[in-house]
């Protein structure tokens, strides 16, 4: 049991410039919303509670978005000779977004895309999905029908099959309409080996398009904000885009879909796991004007806002232009940009160079920015 | 959207002797607790909503507890020659049990055992698990620590590795402490092919031990019932027992772990999928005296109460004694018994021959017997 202390009462400490310092023990004796934010508290929960208890195999500690694993008969292994063999990729995600339906998607599309993307960014070809539903009694059957229909079309578009499922029903006030946990299985072809720990100084960092669209689209509905233009979630399956990138740049170091915690979350993971610095160019980061405006209105930083159809990729310097071209040749990568570089300065830190030339640390989100956006 | 009608107000219609009649369309315009019971309403939800919408691949419609699937490189398939090749097994389950801790287990052990068992009853060797947590804000961190520790010990005992996970946090009154969705991946060795549709007249039906222990143990805590003896959940991983049975009887037709919906649920599935009758001998069914007594007190039928560590198996008549012996040689099968036969009379129906020689239909549970026991 963790030790209660004064800080346990403080569940939203705001962004902390020292966010990347190691945290010796859980500061909370109860779960708070920030533990699900994808920022520092999520990181703390994983490192202090889940990993020590659960990681018997060592696979969890790799902290990838998916596990890649050997699979096969003793006499029928999938590996080639003298290179990394084909492996199984396995991932899971729970979806608790509110509202269930939002511009550009719904919880069903999100559940399919999120799991497909967690496989794809590991270099896997997504094959099979499972879905476990936790339904709240009194949910209109028509809402469930809409969600399930949109899961099916998302599966068809991504080329995956939903092959197994489960349904539980909880009483009113014990859920929130629909929660969905999806898991996915994919095949990582022989020879592919991506890792968040593989970045090297000089590597280029790319994103496939504008940041923050999903989080702000959901938040706008929830807060009843009205914007002049139609802001829509970017929820999309990235497996077509990742395959195109990997064909063009087989030496890609790693990929991430910057969901909860936003681009900041993915880059801080990268800096920590690879023991490198990240130098980000503010002027190069694609952000829609309406997202920027909404962020100002809501007091949010777009680097922390979730995306559900954007790819972050790290490639060797000499592959940067080819990677950019490959991304831009795909409909989901039209607005791709090189947004930064991996450095050997400031290891473990993400540093943003602002439009006016200033430098600031972009730490992991310390508390809770946008709850229940995925 | 389903058509609202008068019956939508009735969410617990009780056991219906006509339970096995086909139901043309959903009778509910809102989700009710019974849709999660594992009985007729769950069946209806699956057949009328999930399958038509989601089953693009045809795998869901097999209605097994797990999907068994081809997996491998084009140039490195797992199959042998001229026989059923090795396949991947994939399954998922959501766990919403209340209370989180109960005699003989907790939600963490249950989540591991349930998923391991759904793989094992398909003839798979369970390998990898995923876990997605939906935590309610204010959950004591110590409760989460206990649950996670017991997941780890359950994984170690079952010989599986938990390799990937996710955590979401929802606000108070949007959850119930901890919900867990686990998924599992296993390997079905070449040559094995079990199916709920494979039973033939004359086959023997076995159960590995006493029925109803889990459901009554949970219910007893929830209702504050006091029993003279210690009634404990039977939550256990069945993969050791299933391997022992399959070694002794490779011709085993199918296996099930009779969880929600109890033995009645599994046998009705069998009768329907195989197009056979099931003749059950009441006097042969092992039930603890204290479970029988509690069922009488609570007005429950032990055939409908959930088990979390019991195996139901169907084997050819000539293998029945060998199967019984194999089960009894395993610690989890000490109280195994042959409880009935597959017949070609009464196709689609489960008929119980009572101790005094009467015959009655044992239909699928129509409404809700024990909510949130798993």
From TrEMBL, chains A, B:
Residue runs in coiled coils: none
UniProt domain PurM-like C-terminal: residue ranges: 200-346
Domain PurM-like N-terminal: 85-188
InterPro entries: HypE, PurM-like_C_dom, PurM-like_C_sf, PurM-like_N, PurM-like_N_sf
Basic and acidic residues bias (residue ranges): 1-12
Pfam families: AIRS, AIRS_C
Name of the molecule in the record: Hydrogenase expression/formation protein HypE
Organism from which the protein derives: Aquisphaera giovannonii
Gene: hypE
């Amino acid at each position: 049991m963790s030790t209660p202390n004064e800080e346990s009462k403080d569940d939203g400490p705001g962004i902390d410039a020292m966010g990347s310092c190691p945290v010796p023990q859980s500061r909370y004796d109860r779960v708070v919303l920030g533990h699900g934010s994808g920022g520092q508290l999520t990181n703390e929960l994983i490192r202090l509670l889940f990993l020590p208890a659960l990681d018997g195999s060592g696979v969890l500690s790799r902290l990838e978005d998916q596990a890649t694993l050997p699979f096969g008969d003793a006499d029928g292994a999938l590996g080639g000779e003298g290179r990394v063999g084909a492996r199984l990729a396995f991932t899971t995600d729970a979806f608790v977004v509110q509202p269930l339906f939002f511009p550009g998607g719904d919880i069903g599309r999100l559940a399919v895309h999120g799991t497909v993307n967690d496989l794809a960014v590991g270099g896997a070809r997504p094959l099979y999905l499972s879905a476990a539903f936790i339904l709240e009694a009194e949910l209109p059957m028509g809402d469930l029908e809409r969600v399930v229909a949109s899961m099916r079309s998302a599966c068809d578009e991504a080329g995956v099959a939903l092959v197994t499922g489960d349904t539980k029903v909880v009483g009113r006030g014990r859920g929130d309409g629909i929660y969905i946990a999806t898991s996915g299985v994919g095949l990582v072809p022989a020879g592919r080996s991506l890792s968040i720990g593989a970045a090297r100084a000089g590597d280029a960092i790319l994103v496939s398009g504008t940041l923050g669209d999903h989080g702000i689209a959901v938040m706008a509905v929830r807060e009843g904000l009205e914007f002049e233009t139609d802001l829509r979630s970017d929820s999309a399956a990235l497996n077509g885009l990742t395959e195109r990138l990997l064909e063009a740049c087989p030496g890609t170091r790693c990929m991430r879909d910057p969901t909860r915690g936003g681009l900041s979350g993915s880059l801080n993971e990268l800096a920590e796991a690879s023991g490198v610095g990240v130098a980000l160019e503010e002027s190069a980061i694609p952000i829609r004007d309406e997202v920027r405006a909404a962020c100002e209105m809501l007091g949010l930083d777009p680097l922390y806002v979730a995306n559900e159809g954007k790819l972050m990729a790290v490639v060797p310097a000499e592959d940067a232009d080819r990677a950019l071209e490959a991304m831009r040749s795909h409909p989901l990568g039209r607005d791709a940009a090189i947004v930064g570089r991996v450095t050997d300065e400031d290891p473990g830190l993400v540093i943003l160079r602002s439009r006016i030339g200033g430098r600031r640390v972009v730490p992991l989100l310390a508390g809770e920015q946008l709850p229940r956006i995925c």
